[in-house]
Amino acid sequence: MFLRTTRRKNKDGSTTAYYQLAHNERDPVTKKVKAQIIHHFGRADQVDRGQLVRLCRSIARVCGVQIADPLDAEQ
Q1: Where are the beta strands (DSSP E) in 10-59?
Q2: How many beta carbons lie within 10 A of that of residue 5, not counting itself?
Q3: Is the backbone of residue 13 left (phi > 0), alpha (psi -120 to 50) or beta?
Q4: Which domain of life is it from (predicted)?
């Protein structure tokens, strides 16, 4: 699984980024890998960063890994 970032160009020329949780699956017929979207987090500029950090820490706890948030040191 991985956090996927997609970008869309708006009519006014600006770009908007979106976050998605995805994982790759191989199509049994074509044998090509295709990303399957598990969850849409929404627009990158509107996502609650704290929620993503809590999700990372929750996954890390299960895996026995420590997560260091560089923004925690700045506060």
Answers
A1: 15-26, 33-43
A2: 11
A3: left
A4: Bacteria
- Cβ–Cβ under 8 Å, residues 26 and 14: no
What distance in Å separates the CA atoms of residue 75 and residue 61, rounded to the nearest whole number? Answer: 23
- Answer positive or negative: Cα dihedral of 37, 46, 74, 62: negative
**Closest C-alpha among 47, 14, 60, 16 to residue 69:** 60
CB 24 within 8 A of CB 35: yes
- Using one digit for the tens of pLDDT, what is the confidence trace for 21-74? 999 999 999 999 999 999 999 999 999 988 998 998 999 999 999 888 888 866
